[in-house]
Amino acid sequence: MSRQAPPPVAWHRWAGHVDALRSAVAARHNKHASARVSQHARLVLMDSIGCLLAGRRAPEVAALEAQLGALEPGDFPMPGGRSLGLRAACQLLAIAPTWYEACEGHAYAHGRPGIAAIAALLPLALQRDARVGDFVDALVTGYETGARAGGWLRVAPGLHVDGNWPALGAAAGVARLLGLSVEGTMQALAIAACQLPSSLYLPIRTGRTVRNLYLAHSATLGLDSALAAQAGIDAPPDALAWYAEHLCRAATQPPPAPTADLVLDAYLKPFAAVRHVHYGAVAAQRIREQLQGQTEGIHRIVLTIYEEATVYCSNPQPATLLAAQFSLSFGVAAMLRFGALDPASYEAPRFMDAELRRLEALVQVEIDPALTRANKRGARLTVVSRRGHCEELVAADDPGLLLDAAAAIVKFTDAAAPTAAAPDAQAFCAALLQARADVPMRRLWQLLCKQQGD
């Protein structure tokens, strides 16, 4: 009597996705990023550092930095602050950039693959005296891995991505900087996959800033996983597939081609709010111009937008900074009222401005079924006032959603004050964007730490 073949293992259906991830790593192994990819990766790095400098001004972040500096002093200098140890710096570099929600993101990944990778890489790069080219290549490898992981390993409802798959990108980036092989990198990803935590979406609903700690978990887990792989610690090779099968809502769509440069789709935010808010904010900015800033006569506001935005960003009448960053109605109202949606929008006197709050209460959010069915992003904003009827449409490729290099430098300069004077901030940006591949990363970082004599 012949034996029956054992039933197929359920998680083996994800083997193709794991192989695609390995192929993406292999496609970049021992290869330098193209000039176009390198330049955009540098923009992402520059913008993330600017968001870091802005976030450090928040009292909670400043207090945490002081605690970390006292507990773990080291040789990574924070501009205008203490020098931190490797892990302390990694944590702070992951926490501060998200504070005002002005940091990079990636639509396919449904998250921000760059922050955790940068946080894990930058202190290590300075410690190892890495060159700009090596750093950028490591960041690109980390970003490509993280973006693909985000598009595949979709988190379950009620969870937030920041404390989850970004660790995989951080692990891949650190593995590249350490010089690990392709299989060594995949081992680092498997080590991280065995430890991916769950992070709740609940703090956003309740406006609690614990959400801003999530990426620190990802950054340190990625760092630890790559170091563990380098040390010879191993993990089941099918850990990623097992995770996809049992612990998330993995996407079944074919993964992107291994040679596709997803980092080129990384967006830089013109406004300090989650990306879903930007579409209505751009429309509101244009309607404000039509109304010449006169909002007193407005008596009806309707925002029609794709369903996913309403799932994550309803939050009417937000009472805290974080809830407001994830509020469609607040973003529209703030832009109509002040023509800006920046860190100052979440602080007194703007945050509780009576006219802003009157406008926010008027905003009616409706779902656009056509955009939702087509899985596209965009918004229509209708504003009715004594001056008449105004309507603006904003598509996913609207120029108002994009920052070119010049605008990104202006954003960085504003974010860096008062830590760095405008000339110093601009000199750093120019040096970062133009530096040769063989320039030490430490030399660039010193431009932001001039007052410390480094």
In CATH, what is the homologous superfamily of the largest domain?
2-methylcitrate dehydratase PrpD
Strand content: 5-15%
Cα distance, first to last residue? Answer: 78 Å
CATH architecture of the largest domain: Orthogonal Bundle
* Helix-strand pattern: HHHEEHHHHHHHHHEHHHHEHEEHHH
Biggest sheet, open or closed, and with what strands and sense? 4 strands, mixed
> From the helix content, strand content and strand pairing, which structural class follows?
alpha+beta
Report the CATH topology name of the largest domain: 2-methylcitrate dehydratase PrpD
The count of β-strands is: 6
For the record, the CATH class of the largest domain is Mainly Alpha
Total domains: 2
Helix content: 40-55%
Q: What overall geometry do the principal axes of the alpha carbons give?
A: globular
Number of helices: 20
Query: What topology, given as strand order, has the largest sheet?
Result: 4-3-5-6
User: Any low-confidence stretches, pLDDT <50, length ≥5?
Assistant: none
- Mean pLDDT over the full residue set: 95
Radius of gyration using CA atoms only? 22 Å
